[in-house]
Amino acid sequence: MVIDGRTRTCGLIGNPVEHTLSPLIQNALANEAGINAVYVPLGVKDGLKKAIEGAYTFGFAGMNVTVPYKRDVLELLSGVDDAAGRIGAVNTLKYTDKGYYGYNTDVTGFVREMEELGLSVAGEDVIVLGAGGASLAVCEGLRQLYVDHIYMLNRSLDKARQLYGDCSDITLLGLDEYDKIPDGGYTCIQCTSVGLPDSADRAAIEDEGFYSRIKAGVDLIYNPSETAFMKRVTFQYPFNYQKDTFAYSILF
Ligand code: ATR
């Protein structure tokens, strides 16, 4: 990779970003395609507005957005495409004359992964852990896969109600209320940030009783390659998927 005066800069905005594999993937793809661009991690502990304004001033060609900014970034954009507007979360920004324009490729990535894995949820009830920006895309993806009903467990019920209170196909529960879910074997999609390197030995729910209800687990966290959540699912069943649903990008 040669960086010169014409190199376009792209990056990943989030906190934390130390675990990300996106620079590895995106720089390799740019190199392979002969595109003069570089992709860097952009850790933003606070001051998202200033970070977006600064990136725009420097003319960053585009950025991906991850935990915990997928929703907060919406109000800082010049507009969003239909899918991102419907979902209410964004993971990809593209430079335009009027500001950054937002897209959500998480839904496509999630649906594609589920299909490639052969993990069908059509007509089934599914458990979603977490009620943040990533969960919004996952719920939309699950609907496209014809899920019947979603049990969504979140640490903060109030926050979950604000975002999902109007959804008739979602039952909201606290993390310690999993025993209110009817008995059965469920597919569970892990969408919380618990299990990232700063909390690698932890899962959002630690109780064994919860994992006895899980027949298949998908963790959106791909680094570490086996999260504490996945270890607990595998302990119960040898049917264990862990995939990065966020590798899809429309930046390049
Ligand atoms: P993203 O946009 O990537 O989904 P987010 O909107 O900050 O990021 O959502 C992070 C999710 O992880 C939320 O569901 C959050 O729970 P709260 O809504 O209660 O904050 C969850 N989460 C983060 N830290 C957690 C922890 N220590 N224990 C349990 N859940 C946690």
**Assembly state (oligomeric):** single chain
What is the overall number of helices? 8
Helix content: 25-40%
Total strands: 12
Derived from helix and strand composition plus strand pairing, the structural class reads alpha/beta
Give the topology string: H per helix, E per strand: EHEHEEHEEHEHEHEEHEHE
Kindly describe this structure.
The protein has 252 residues and is of the alpha/beta class. The protein has eight helices and twelve strands. It has helices spanning 22-33, 48-58, 82-87, 106-117, 133-144, 157-164, 208-211, 228-236, and strands at 8-14, 37-43, 62-65, 79-80, 92-96, 99-103, 125-129, 149-154, 170-174, 186-190, 214-219, 240-242. Helix 8 (228-236) links the parallel strand 11 (214-219) and strand 12 (240-242). Helix 4 crosses helix 5. The model is unreliable at 243-252 (pLDDT under 50). Bound molecules: 2'-monophosphoadenosine-5'-diphosphate. Residues 66-68, 70-71, 130-135, 154-156, 159, 191-194, 204 line the site of 2'-monophosphoadenosine-5'-diphosphate (ATR).
